[in-house]
Fold:
Amino acid sequence: LTGGRVHVTDYSNASRTLLFDIGRLDWDEEILKKLSVPRAMLPVARASSAIVGETDPAVLGARIPIAGIAGDQQAALFGQTGFRPGQAKNTYGTGCFMLLNTGRQQIPSEDLLTTIAWGLEDRVDYALEGSVFIAGAAVQWLRDELGILATSSDIESLAASVPDSGGVYFVPAFVGLGAPHWDAYARGTIVGLTRGSGRAHLARATLEAIAYQTRDILEAMKRDSAISLEVLGVDGGAAVNELLCQFQSDILGVPVERPAVSETTALGAAYLAGLATGCWSSLEEISRNHEVEARYHPQMSQEKRERLYGGWRRAVERAKGWS
Structure:
């Protein structure tokens, strides 16, 4: 069970997730038979951008087309206009959810979720998805349990009061580690403390941990897909944190973009509905509608980037298998 989805452990046909074969785009007869699920109980699969019905005029006063259907993370990628292979988005919430567009390639992975990004009238695009269990929740822990923050937003100014984390690494494995480690027995770990370590260093290490975990997922995506990341679109509550976004760009070595419209999940659903109903005629037209509020470019040397990330990987190894 990964990311809330059950996978069939059969790598000869790694496209089968739950009951649906995402390669054939139909319900899997073998699994239906083994689980005694009648096909008649299941709905007809439709494209993400298609008119599938209308609202009842007795309820809303008109027949309004129902046309945009997508999962929340897939809709966010569409709302970020991540239409090309190599484009990705990361949502920073209590956890993190990163999707990389792999185009028409359905790429199997042992550590990540292979999923449909969306289905349009003439095409189906796929994605790799990775989930981080604890991101913003670590900031909440600093606020609620340690009491070193009055509000979650205070973390940026506190973390910025020191030039770096002073060698401190915080692995927020409060409930184990998600992708790509999948270690339910890992536990939260703070390493690298010295007598000079203070609240600000821990605050900075917390923000950096969010970025490091995102790179962990990206490394798995690169290994499985051989697709290089072009740009990372960010959204969610923590995406307003300037220090986090800059460090994320630095540790990944690619630009990070925060869109002008932060509610990218709702925007993506609206884009999908608009394509089906003729409000927009193409993906290119939607792309021209995309506005970037802030763009962060890598400012860290490759040597420093790899040195810092090497320290993070050492810290993760110490957190694993603790419980």
Remarks:
- The two ends are 20 Å apart (CA to CA).
- Confidence is low (pLDDT under 50) at residues 1-14.
